[in-house]
Amino acid sequence: MRVRPFVDTHFHLSWTARSLLELNLKECSTVECVLSKVREESERGGTYGGWVIGSLLHYKLAKAITKELLDEVSDKPVSIATRDGHMAVVNSKAIEISGVDCSYSGVECVEGVPTGRLYEDAMLLVRRKMPDPPIGKLVGAYKAVLDDLYSNGFLQIHAMTSRWLEWELVKSLNHKVHVIPYMRKEAFVKGSPGIKLFADGVLIYGTALMNGKGRKLIDERELSQWLIRGKEEGFRVAVHAMGDEAIDLVIRAYEMAGKPKRVLRIEHAAITRDDQLEYLASEGIEVSVQPGIMESVGVEEFKSILGPNWKRFMRVRDMIELGVKVYHGSDSPVGPWRLKEVFKYYKLLPKPVDDLETVLKLMSSGWEIHGERPSGELEVTDDLEVRVL
Ligand SMILES: [Zn+2]
């Protein structure tokens, strides 16, 4: 079958590339495994810059690891982040260097003392002090990720939560995969094609805004100001909104901003109501969905975390039927991005998207978001191998 080249509309390039250089904890299923890997890494002299930096940790293990356990296995500053990217566990050295204390929201504390677990925005406290990998290695890792994407049919990616340094490095690569950066708020520079903002947290930590709970990570006024600025300066505003109450918040901000066209897009839209989908359809607000995020938790466990909300999870089929402009993203490294694995997760949705044609359309239509025309074609075989023609 011949189709247009793929666009991954929600890809974390920096984080996917860095995870190739960091201590990879993806395969660990026990606390002992994590601790022994941290110990080895520390004895080797650390990951880089004198720190032990790990990633892709399963969130359940992160909840069982404390700063004290990390202190026992390393005398260097340690930060290990979960695969969902919304939590990290750090040791006492890292806490001390970063000035983490209980006055910041997102710093988990017991009796006024940080446990070492940092959620969402609080992770930035440590990230600001963490060393960057050597530039040459970082560029090599970007190239490896982009080469792999290209050979699997992706010719454009929207790189969420980018930073200025990365954008410059990626531009210098001049790669066949066109990278469109959506900058972190604190790294936003004039001339960037997009910004990524967060309305709430994630489903697995109960930080998504729904059922009257969760963490509100931006207020309506600030979000509406970004939307107005996006309209004036011509950049896109991508807002992470997991829970339906986060989507309510985004819609309020959109209305405060005077409903600017072709500025706002919503990332994830994991839990939605019918009235919201109808609104997004009528306003032409784009949505990027990532069924593959189930992989980072495990499908059965993910369902049990959601409970009765499972039937409202990522309603891609309903979105299509109601006329919402919906596009595929992987959220890599949270979810997988190769067609074969992606298709598996579309089929596992509560209302499965089980025909290949629809999935291919979701994967090839993201070109519209930045008004570009794809060049070239892909050949997709029956066993879902992809070749760029
Ligand atoms: Zn993401």
UniProtKB/TrEMBL annotation:
InterPro entries: Amidohydro_3 (IPR013108), Metal_Hydrolase (IPR032466). Pfam families: Amidohydro_3. SUPFAM superfamilies: Metallo-dependent hydrolases. This is Amidohydrolase 3 domain-containing protein. Residues 5-336 form the Amidohydrolase domain. Signal peptide: none annotated.
